[in-house]
Amino acid sequence: MGANPLPNGAGSRTPELTSRSAPSEVSALPVNGDREAGTGHKDENPKRLGTAPLIDPTARVRNSVIGEWTWIGPNTSIDETTFGDYSYVAGDAQIIYATVGKWCSLASHVRLNPGNHPTWRVMQHHATYRRTQYGFAPTDDEDFFQWRRDHAVTIGHDVWIGHGAVVMPGVSIGNGAVIGSSAVVTKDVDPYMIAVGVPARPLRERFPRPIAERLQAIAWWDWPRDLLESRIADFNDLWTDSWRCTVTEPSSSAQGRRVLVAVVTGVGERVQAWRAEHDPGQARRIPPHSTLAYWPPAVDGDGIGTLEAQVRHAFDLPVSVHCGAVHEFANAEHTFYVSLTATEALDRARTRLFDGTHVSMGTLTPWPWHITCVRRAHGRDLTALRNAATTLDFNDAWTVDTVAYLELRGDRYEPVAQWKV
Fold it and tell me: d(Cα 19, Cα 66) in Å, to the nearest integer?
């Protein structure tokens, strides 16, 4: 824990720790000897976590809410902060006036919301607001501390902050972002963005923007424990059956959204007849297809000709694939699809489609080829659908001969352009 992702105090308070597993106040003071989860552990990498926070005896936590399955490393100071479930901080960190989401990974020596001095005053030394410490007044300047609270730091979910990084007051970091080691973050960071340097600047996105948006819509960080336990192995690979359909196809699309598809001809008639019976809404909405680009550029006029040139560049050779059995994605929507195999020629065409020879199609993140039969089967009689799907099993070749550039108009995707290839 605490490895680098990339090379490159308030006034007097009563000690208090609030945990969602133990809503009443509990002491965050060190406890000697072997400790159960929630009372601290001397090891740098604790072996046991649980619903009660695991806090190193050298750490200090005050006036904060600490979530379940969390670990607070040695010599860490946390004040007036909400620290989400499953998050950890490796140690020697200082966090004050902050909200840290779930599943966050904070390396050692991280600072969230470091001290801010009143540069507009004649004296910017903290004697002007920690007056009791210097014997200047019987009370501290609470207005100043409230000003500090009003400039809280917000960290989203599943954020990785590298060793020695500093997040300045008032900054928000989006879900899934990465902050490089030793970075100084002075401005907000978008979700799923990698930011590095002093001051921190965007380096690149972790995923293409549409996939990042879908991951945020899924909000897996809010899943209940039993679902996490059943799906934890799926988090290793974005392109397992459990994720691939869910993250590439939006659950709902905005009017005017465009998509580039290979229309399934020949065997597509059989697919469409089956869809008309078992998913009539989707059958009306879009023809049987395999998607070539989920987020192609929105072009009109001369741009259509440029897009056509890119398509013809991609399909400069004949492309055939094999249609096989019907399968079911292990996603929340229980999507049914016809599997495609022997896709080497189609893989080559997709690579050429995204090579930018005539027009940029964005970043290529390959997905497994498929023909959707039932887009959303959640809440339906899955046994009946599975039985019906056995009548659709294929053992046929499909030669790609039609590419369509479609736009959502009303409840249907209508062709903006269509080409024979």
Answer: 5
Place of tokens 């053992």: 395
Q: State whether the Cα torsion 191-197-203-206 is positive or negative.
A: negative
Report whether 92 contacts 86 (CB < 8 A).
Answer: no
Question: pTM for this structure?
Answer: 0.54
For residues 115 and 9, the answer to whether their CB atoms sit within 8 Å is yes
The pLDDT value given to residue 210: 73
Helix (H, G, I), strand (E, B) or coil at 350: helix
Q: Which residues of the chain have pLDDT under 50?
A: 1-43, 46, 245, 251
pLDDT score for 9: 36
In DSSP terms, 261 is beta-bridged to: 291, 404
The continuous run of DSSP H or E covering 211 comes out as: helix 209-218
Amino acid at 394: F
With residue 325 as reference, give the H or E element that holds it. Answer: strand 320-328
**Residue 246 has what pLDDT?**
56
The vertex-179 CA angle with 355 and 153, nearest 5°, equals: 130
Please give the Cα distance from 297 to 313 (Å, whole number).
16
C-alpha to C-alpha distance for 57 and 40, rounded to whole angstroms: 5
Identify residue 193 by its one-letter amino acid code: M
Beta strand pairing call for 71-72 and 54-55: parallel
Alpha carbon distance 125, 393 (integer Å): 76
